[in-house]
Sequence to fold (173 residues):
Amino acid sequence: MSTPLVGIIMGSDSDLKIMQDAADILSQFGIAYELTIVSAHRTPHRMVQYAETAAARGLKVIIAGAGGAAHLPGMVASITPLPVIGVPVKSSNSIDGWDSVLSILQMPNGIPVATVALNAAKNAGILAASILGSADATIRHKVEDYKAQLANAVMEKVESVKIVGHPNFFDEA
Ligand code: RP5
Fold:
């Protein structure tokens, strides 16, 4: 197994069912990652150690997911020079998800976290691949292929609506 380029961390094992989507898309892109539990509130020293050593261990991007009072992504971003992508998780202690979203999104000037949508760990994985792809042509081409597949899927839907028919269908042909 090659050296992990992406670190996927989360506040609890209860986040894993969401965060697994980031792992899956990175596997699809053939990008090596590591995954573990790091809790900002329950294991603060572990969080500091993880963030302090991440770059030296070869990681290029960190994906951090947490729910409720979701301080993990922001605190990790305050320590590491690596880009941090935050995944707000709608967890058992989350009121409606807004608490997680705002805790990760509303960072102070100077310490950015690239925040994806609620539970959008897959997008976090794609964004991590895009960041890596900016300096790696092989990964960049995989992201390009992925986007081309998305576009093809939309065009298939256009065709199926066209075949089913709609009185106001825009037919560009
Ligand atoms: C957060 O509290 C975790 O990231 C998780 O989303 C939430 C609930 O944790 P558990 O009580 O399930 O361990 O820190």
